[in-house]
From TrEMBL:
Species, as recorded: Streptomyces pratensis (strain ATCC 33331 / IAF-45CD)
SUPFAM superfamilies to which the protein is assigned, alphabetical: Duplicated hybrid motif (SSF51261), Fucose-specific lectin (SSF89372)
Upper classification of the organism: Bacteria, Bacillati, Actinomycetota, Actinomycetes, Kitasatosporales
Entry keyword Membrane: no
The name this protein goes by in its record: Peptidase M23
Domain M23ase beta-sheet core as annotated: residue spans: 56-144
Length: 505
């Protein structure tokens, strides 16, 4: 990677880059969501049902006065926010279970393409724009996305605990899934206020930089001390405070924010040395940590959200001295993947926040791995080795595909992140090149590999608060970054704040 000048101000223009689809446009086929993964929903709007779903009326109408707030029925990402003559102002939200909610005839829209919304979040105000006989919300739910007709919104909502007519703010609310951050020699996560925090492990300890404002420029690098040449993991406490873990062959230490988005504690001992570590958040908010070493894998977990820790417990094996990553199933169960040069194994929680399965074979050995999730929640795993990169993905609640080759750089460091419209993007870096691939559609196959930069030693990707992916790479010269300026456009590789940052060997 090449050092550059200080970061330029950029305009985020996802709205202009996104393709606007007509409300009746067929959607590309996607794998069906796993059975039993329906999340609780939120009430879309106060009012009475003025027209039900039927043959000839693709949706449910909820009538009320102009300006009545409209709410997202579930967590998801805004894929359309615009105007169409028959619909007036309208919004489409992609949900993790593969379904899509659609809202029409609004007088005002409060969200833009790329925004991530939560169930019950206000997204618009009711109106009577387009082909409408009076103020109402026209709500559509797309289920089988290969057809041109939706499913009954009243049935969809009732299955998730909301019966129309309803009162906004009442009824069940799903807890947002906290997906584990990538571990490695360089890691990043968002503070509770939306600013990215970055940590890079050099020979002299850990170095830290942070965004000075949400989606903004970066601070100077700050040396933190701690273990030299460490593997890092980061996870949020239930109250939003980040926890940083650092492991090398001799020691394991951790530190944490003393308040959400605030300052940091000093380093405290967390255990003996090892090879690698990964951290994730249980469905009940407790952080869980896995670490590998010559005797396999051990784990340690918070006894209560934001609370103290258990002792280290053996996991019954796992690959010795392995690279470790975590994923999270759509129902909140953590899953651990561990890879060394000769074997690949995984284990998973048998219930959210519960006990663990035995280790089972997941494939042959390799160099590195990354775990991400499709827009419908299905986990996807990538692993690198001497002949390139392979991937394997959930085909249902308990089944996996076989390993499929995707090409790419041999023996590369891997990371992945989701684009604002829900597509997985994978980044691979070895000593001579950096490349990336991306899903060509939501839950879809992947593009060909494209050059992303020159070689380096480590790479990680995360998302800004506005959804833009930001990638951090390290080399013997320092630590650099590159970020999305649109759905398919990127900045150059640049220093953070015109400073090379720590070299990572």
């Amino acid at each position: 990677m090449l050092p550059g000048l200080s970061r330029r101000a950029l305009t985020w223009f996802l709205s202009s880059a996104a393709a606007v689809l007509l409300p009746w446009t067929p959607l590309p086929a996607a794998p069906a969501a796993a059975a039993g993964t329906a999340a609780a929903a939120a009430c879309p709007a106060a009012g009475f049902v003025s027209q039900h779903f039927h043959d000839g009326h693709n949706g449910t109408d909820i009538a009320n006065v102009v300006g009545t707030p409209i709410y997202a029925v579930g967590d998801g990402e805004v894929t359309i926010s615009g105007y169409e003559s028959g619909y007036g102002q309208w919004i489409r939200v992609q949900h993790a279970d593969g379904r899509i909610s659609e809202y029409g005839h609004m007088i005002r829209r409060d969200v833009s393409v790329g925004d991530r919304v939560t169930a019950g979040q206000q997204i618009a105000l009711m109106g009577s724009e387009g082909q409408s006989t009076g103020p109402h919300l026209h709500l559509r739910i797309w289920g089988d996305r290969s057809t041109t007709y939706g499913i009954d919104p009243e049935v969809h909502l009732a299955e998730r605990g909301v019966v129309l007519p309803c009162t906004p703010g009442s009824g069940p609310r799903p807890e947002p899934l906290v997906y584990p951050s990538e571990s490695g020699r360089v890691v990043s996560a968002r503070s509770a206020d939306g600013r990215l925090e970055l940590f890079a492990a050099g020979a002299d300890g850990i170095h830290h930089a942070w965004q000075r404002e949400v989606n903004g420029d970066w601070s100077e690098w700050e040396p933190l001390g701690g273990p030299g040449d460490a593997e890092l993991a980061v996870a949020p406490n239930a109250d939003g405070r980040l926890e940083l873990l650092a492991l090398n062959g001799d020691t394991f230490e951790h530190r944490w924010q003393t308040s959400p988005s605030g300052g940091w504690s000093g380093w405290e001992n967390f255990g003996g040395g090892g090879r690698d570590a990964a951290a994730g958040v249980n469905a009940d908010g407790r952080i869980e940590v896995y670490a590998s070493g010559p005797a396999g894998l051990f784990h340690r977990y918070q006894l209560a959200p934001n609370g103290g820790w258990s002792g280290w417990e053996p996991t019954g094996g796992g690959p010795a001295d392995s690279r470790v990553e975590m994923g999270k199933a759509p129902d909140g169960r953590l899953e651990v993947f561990a890879l060394n040069g000769s074997t690949f194994q995984h284990r998973y929680q048998t219930a959210p926040s519960g006990g663990w399965s035995p280790w089972t074979g997941f494939g042959e050995g390799g160099h590195d791995l990354t775990v991400d999730h499709n827009a419908d929640g299905r986990l996807e795993v990538f692993a690198s080795g001497p002949v390139g990169v392979f991937h394997k993905y959930r085909t249902g609640s308990a089944n996996w595909s076989g390993w499929e080759p995707v090409g790419g750089p041999a023996d590369s460091q891997l990371t992945s992140e989701r684009t604002p419209d829900g597509r997985v993007e994978v980044f691979a870096m070895n000593g001579t090149t950096a490349m990336h691939i991306w899903q060509t559609g939501v839950n879809a196959p992947y593009s060909d590999w494209a050059v992303f930069g020159t070689g380096g030693t480590e790479v990680t990707a995360t998302s800004n608060a506005d959804g833009r992916i930001e990638v951090f790479g390290t080399s013997h010269a320092g630590t650099f970054h590159k970020w999305q300026t649109g759905f398919a456009t990127w900045s150059d590789w640049l220093w953070l704040n015109n400073s090379a940052g720590p070299p990572v060997g």
